[in-house]
Each structure stands twice: as structure tokens, then as C-alpha cells.
Amino acid sequence: MNKLKDKKKGSANPEYPPKKEKKEVHTKRNSNSSNINNSNSCSNNNVGNNSSGNAFVKTSKNGTAGEGDNIINKIKELNLVLLQNKDIIDSLRQENESFSSQIANFVKKCKELQCICIEKEKDIAKLKHNEKYLVQEITKRKKEKDELEGKINKLEQEGTSKSAHISQVEFEKDNLIKELHERDKQINALHGNIKQLEGQITLVRNENAKNKQDVTNNLKKQDEINEHINSKDNKITALEEKTQKLNKVIKDKIEENENCKKKIQQQSAKIAHLNDKIQILQKEQKNNEEKIKKYIDNIKMLKKNNQKMDERNMESQLEEQRKELEQVIFNSQVYKLSKKMGTRKKSTNSSNVCKGAKGANEGETKQMLSPNKRSHKNPPNSDSSSSSSCGGSSDGEIVSFSKKYNLSKNMSKDRGDTTGKKKK
């Protein structure tokens, strides 16, 4: 940038060399002609050569005629070379100015892009922070889910263990019921035996009543019968004791059955309560899964909205940059036109001084130039162009610039429309 600025300053304020003697003019003219053929960007030296050539023409009038003709021919050749290389010099100046404007625009764009990058980095940092927070919440939810699954598994294991215990209790209950049936059968058999014994006792008593008359005669028989009765009584008492014991056992078994029924009811109530808890936990798990899905959907929507906002910002920035480029191009063209007008005014003032030396060169230079160059281009060192011709050429350049500006504007609009259609 600093080098380009130095070049601009050098081109805007050229330092013209002072007039020298004849020998120095010859050597300098030859060196300048070689520099013109080798490089097309030394416009200030060429202008210096013109002034030195004109000075040499004035001094050479006092010399010999042969040397004057040679010098005039050389001056004509140099003027032709200058006129041939003038277009290239002007184009190089314009390219230099366009490059400097493009570099300034590029620097502005870089600064704008840096600002945009900083803002985007801030947005990305915020999004990363939000993403970390959401990831932490998801991990918490996963941990809660794992804990709930562990609890559910424990409850299922407890339910299976309880069901096994219930099956064992039912099996024991069936065994006890079978034992009760067997005991009932035994009790019924004992009741039958008791009835038989009671019948026998009645028979024995009848026999004793019948044999009371023969007591005296049958003492021995009576003793035997008493012994038999005593034995039978002992048997009866033993059977009665057995019946009492069996009744107690039956009562105990009935109480145990009632207790087992109560335990079964309590366990069934616990199982129902555990089933209710399991259903509640399943509902909570479903709600947590729905919440996690909602969080994921919200994250996706945020990402889509951010992408849309980025696209809109890029479109708006491109439109602003396009407008700024158009404005800069317009300002640069206006600046060039004003600069050209200023250089033409300066050239008219300098041409009044050098009319005598350049009058002879006008015919030959006009014959060498094409008609397009005559109509569109006016060299700063030619004296034939008047103020009216300068005004006409400047108006023509203004019209051509306006046409170019309108064409570039239409092209940029067409490009914007095509890019918008592609995005849609």
C-alpha cells in the first residue's frame, strides 16, 4: 500500500529536469528513447524528454543547417514514439489507479470480514455453550433413566421372588389341605370305632344286668368281666384323649390356614402396590423420553434458524458490497474524468508556449494517427486541439462512461437475479 501511494505521488507531481547544454541533450535523448522502447510506465521521463527536445530545437536554430535537419528528424521520430506509447502509458496509469482502488476496497472488505468472523465466533461460542448445557442435561436424563431402569429391574426381581414365595405357600397350603382330609378320614374312622365300642358297651351292660342275678354264682366271671370292662374303659379314655388332641391339632391347622390366608392377602396387596409403582415409573419414563425428543427437536430448529440467518446475512452483505463497489467505481470514473479535464487544461497552456516548434510536426502526426484516435483521443502535447474540441471529447467520454456504468449496473442486477433464482 505504501509503495502504491508513493507511486501515485510521483505520477501526480512529476519533477521536470532543468535545461542542459547541447551535448548533454544528445546523450539524454538517446537514453530516453531506449527507456521508452524497454518500459511503458515512465511517463514523467517522456514529458521531460519532450521539453528537452523542444529546448534543443530552439538552440539548434543557431547551428548549421545539416545538423538542424538531423535533429528535427530525430525529434519527429521521438514524437512518433511518444505518440505510439502514449496509449500504453495512459492505460498503465488507469490500471495503477484501478489497482489502488481495488486494494483499498479489498482492505475494507477484509476488515468487514474480520468483524463478521468475530461476531460469528461469538455466536459459535454461545451455541457451543448451549450445546454443552444440553449435553449435560441429556447425560443427567440418561443417568436418571438408568437409575429408573435399575429400580424397575429390582422391582421385577422382587415380584418374581414374591411370586415364587406365593407358589411355595400355595403348595404348602395344598399339602396341609391334603393332610386335613387325611385327618378327617382318620377322625371319621375313630368315630365309627367309638360307635362300635359304645354298642359293645351297651351289650356288655345288658349282659351285666342280666348276669346280676347270677352274681354270686358267677364271681369269677364277674371279675373277668370287670377286668375286661376296665380295659375297655382305659381304651375309651385313651381314645377320648386322642380325640381331644386331634381336635386341638385341627384347631391349630385351621388357625394356621387363616393366618396363611391373611398373609396371602397382604402379599397380594403388596404385589398390587408394586404393580402400581411400576406403572407410574413407566409413565415417568415415557414422559422423560418425550421431553428428550422435544429437546432434540428444539436443537435441530435452532440449527436450521442459525443457518437461515447466516444465509440472509451473507445475502445482505453481498448486496451492500455490490452497492459500495458500484459507488466506488462511479467515484473513480468521475475522478478520472476530472483529472483528464485538468490535464487537458494544463496541456493547452503549455502548448501556447511551444507552437512554433510543434507546428511542423502536426501534418505528419495526423497522417500517422487513425481516424478513431483523432476523434476520441487528444494528446496533451499537440497544439491543434482548441478549447471547443476538448469540450466535445470530454462530453463524448462522459456519455461513454454513463453507458458503461448503466451496462455494468444491469449486468450486476442480472447476476443478482440469477443467484436469487438458484438459491430458491
From TrEMBL:
The keyword Lipid metabolism does not apply. Residues 411-424 have a biased composition (Basic and acidic residues). Keywords: Coiled coil. Residues 1-10 have a biased composition (Basic residues). Residues 30-48, 382-396 have a biased composition (Low complexity). Residues 187-331 form a coiled coil. Signal peptide: none annotated. This is Protein MGET. The keyword S-adenosyl-L-methionine does not apply. It comes from Plasmodium coatneyi. Residues 1-48, 339-424 are annotated as: Disordered.
